[in-house]
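thought: fold this chain, then report.
action: predict
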Amino acid sequence: MMWQDFVFMLGSGLSIVFLAPTLRDSSARVPLGTSLPSMGIGFIYSMTFFTLGMTFSATGAFAAGSMWSLIALFRSPQGISMKLVARENLALFVSDVQYWLARRRSDSTHAEQYAPFEHSPDQQQY
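observation:
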């Protein structure tokens, strides 16, 4: 047994202790943009630790990912919602991906992708 396994497990345990008040506070609102990535990272770390034979760390990371999933479910600004991806959000995401792919296929450089949009002289800027 490696001592690092216990250190990672203790770190995950502390994160659960620090997240518990957020889950218990009915007025807390945590954006899905915070809770979903944290949930995903917890589960990915759990699988990674498990493949390394660090079962205590894997269990702790899984528990932290589970805590984040409960926060996403019960403490998101939208309230209790099993439907985390709305059609409008999905349509916006698809639109963004299409725009990004079109920009990648163009002859412009990568730096030009982040340059401000240039308007034609007859367009009014705000």
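thought: worth noting. The chain has a mean pLDDT of 80.
final: tokens above.
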